[in-house]
Fold this sequence. Notes:
This protein is of the alpha+beta class. It is built from 6 helices and 8 strands; from the N terminus they run ββαααβββαβαββα. Helices cover 34% and strands 33% of the residues. A hairpin with a 3-residue loop joins β1 and β2 (9-13).
Amino acid sequence: MRILESERLILKPIEPEDLPYLMEQRWDADLTDYIIHNPISSYNQQQWYEKICRNGDVAMSIFYKEKPGEKPVLLGAVGLYDFNYRHQRATWKTLRIPKQYQGLGLAYEASAMLIEYGFNTLNLNKITSDVFPDNESILHLLERVGFKKEGRLKQHYFHQGKFKDVLIYSLVRSDFIKMKSKKQ
């Protein structure tokens, strides 16, 4: 897996030193309403990390080059998971970036970089995502990147004491190519 870089961002494979910060995000009360998985222990975080390394998931830390010449700031993570190589598809997931960095287009930029990598380098045909219907910022992000709503899975996850629906979004390579050609 390679490092992806733009003028403002660096996406690099998650490393062990990134894990404590990423675990902090999973425990952030503002985020837990929208993260499908519950907060986890450091042991479970380590198990997750080992699993993504074994599975070949593309889990990337997002670093922001906030000030030229200074060390980039770790914001969160974005990744492609649950690869099905026969059918050339994967699932896009992200951890929300901190509030002080929201509204700068960083989540969009990171997602667009990863999606382009998925289609152009990993030869994916389809990228999917499942998201809670009330997670408006991620729904907006997915649509902005080009994902389309495919449907709703009723009471799909048990989260915070109740069953919750999830919306399924996807982007297929042919739509991605059309979208890219219109921008040029």
